[in-house]
């Protein structure tokens, strides 16, 4: 049986080390998590840390970048489809334009999800990247949004939306919030929002306070505040503290946890997952959003057992909500079923929910959850 460390090495080679012309392409976060233990789940090995009370505990489903497994991510069309499937929350990643308007994009760069290289070929910076911050909203409206591609222009997920004629566009955070608010009002539903402040340090260097803009927009649509139907998330722990202390935000805040090598911020994510780190995070955040690859115990897996990573005890001890990312139906490891993946999150990790590109299988699993 492979060990977790070998799976991590393989994962880094296949996923996060794909760099073309300085463009780091994130393909999938799921296979490395469970590839190493697929044989364990398909055998009769017992699941450790199973909580029998989990069946009665709510399991939150978050539409990752809208219904991004079916339509181009973060478009209004993807948000509308997500809403129709009734998740608990719809996620919006937020970056700020040249004219200080918050738009919904996963990256501060444009070339992986738009045709910016064709429309504005000379508007890249010295590193060859096209930054949303360098374009006005009107200019961004001239772009077409397409499925995420790698450095060579091939789709990251080859079997997702393949249409050529629909004219998907970048939308503002205001438009996304208005859409969800109006659908909630008319349909008497309560789908929440889950915005992420992208690269706050980058935006501050550009002279703009991305977190304040996001909070102001949440408040404008009734999504902000202590009892609101929303979470605000960020990979930068300094910014999480700033959201609480400087901006005085009272709503729910989530500390996202990645790998130090990803360059999301200068936060030490190894420290975040320590007992000291979790205690500190709990002083400012209501929950955490860990990467799936951090959730299982390496040593136990080497012995043929599936157990939650030890650091999760610190999160549970502090009462932190745990929303891991990202379940993708088209990135399951060989031999694994959707149910096995989701049961692991529920019964082994004792997670409170999950971010997913593919709402249909997750909502279906939840409806028959045992």
Automatic annotation (TrEMBL):
The residue ranges of the GP-PDE domain are: 59-366
- First and last residue of the signal peptide: 1-48
On the tree of life, the source organism's domain of life is Bacteria
Assigned EC number: 3.1.4.46
What keywords sit in the KW lines?
Answer: Glycerol metabolism, Hydrolase, Signal
If you read the UniProt record, what top EC class would you report for this enzyme, in one word? hydrolase
Q: Which catalysed reactions does the entry list for this protein?
A: a sn-glycero-3-phosphodiester + H2O = an alcohol + sn-glycerol 3-phosphate + H(+)
- Is this entry keyworded Signal? yes
Q: Family assignment?
A: Belongs to the glycerophosphoryl diester phosphodiesterase family.
Q: What protein am I looking at? A: glycerophosphodiester phosphodiesterase
The organism's lineage is:
Bacteria, Pseudomonadati, Pseudomonadota, Gammaproteobacteria, Alteromonadales
């Amino acid at each position: 049986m492979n060990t977790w460390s070998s799976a991590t090495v393989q994962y880094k080679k296949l996923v996060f080390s794909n760099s073309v012309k300085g463009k780091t392409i994130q393909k999938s976060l799921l296979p490395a998590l469970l590839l190493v233990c697929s044989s364990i789940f398909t055998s009769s090995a017992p699941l450790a840390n199973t909580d029998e009370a989990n069946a009665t505990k709510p399991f939150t489903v978050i539409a990752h970048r809208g219904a991004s497994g079916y339509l181009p991510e973060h478009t209004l069309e993807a948000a509308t489809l997500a809403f129709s499937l009734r998740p608990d929350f719809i996620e919006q990643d937020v970056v700020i334009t040249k004219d200080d308007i918050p738009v919904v994009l996963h990256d501060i760069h444009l070339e992986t999800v738009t045709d910016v290289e064709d429309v504005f070929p000379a508007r890249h910076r010295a590193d060859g990247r096209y930054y949303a911050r360098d374009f006005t909203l009107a200019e961004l409206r001239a772009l077409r949004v397409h499925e995420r591609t790698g450095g060579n222009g091939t789709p990251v997920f080859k079997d997702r939306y393949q249409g050529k004629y629909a004219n998907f566009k970048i939308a503002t955070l205001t438009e996304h919030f208005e859409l969800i608010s109006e659908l909630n009002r008319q349909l008497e539903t309560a789908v929440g929002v889950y915005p992420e402040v992208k690269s706050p340090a980058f935006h501050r260097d550009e002279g703009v306070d991305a977190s304040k803009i996001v909070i102001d927009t949440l408040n404008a649509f009734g999504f902000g505040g202590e009892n609101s139907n929303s979470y605000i998330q960020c990979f930068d722990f300094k910014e999480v503290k700033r959201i609480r202390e400087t901006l005085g935000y009272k709503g729910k805040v989530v500390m996202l946890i990645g790998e130090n090598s990803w360059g999301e911020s200068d936060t030490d994510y190894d420290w975040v997952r320590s007992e000291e780190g979790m205690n500190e995070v709990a002083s400012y955040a209501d929950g955490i959003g860990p990467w799936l690859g951090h959730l299982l115990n390496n040593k136990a897996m080497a012995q043929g057992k599936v157990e939650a990573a030890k650091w999760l005890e610190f999160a549970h001890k502090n009462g932190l909500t745990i929303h891991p990312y990202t379940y993708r139906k088209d990135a399951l490891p060989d031999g694994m079923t959707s149910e096995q993946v989701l049961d692991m999150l529920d019964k082994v990790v004792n997670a409170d929910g999950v971010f997913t590109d593919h709402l249909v299988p997750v909502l279906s699993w939840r409806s028959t959850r045992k």
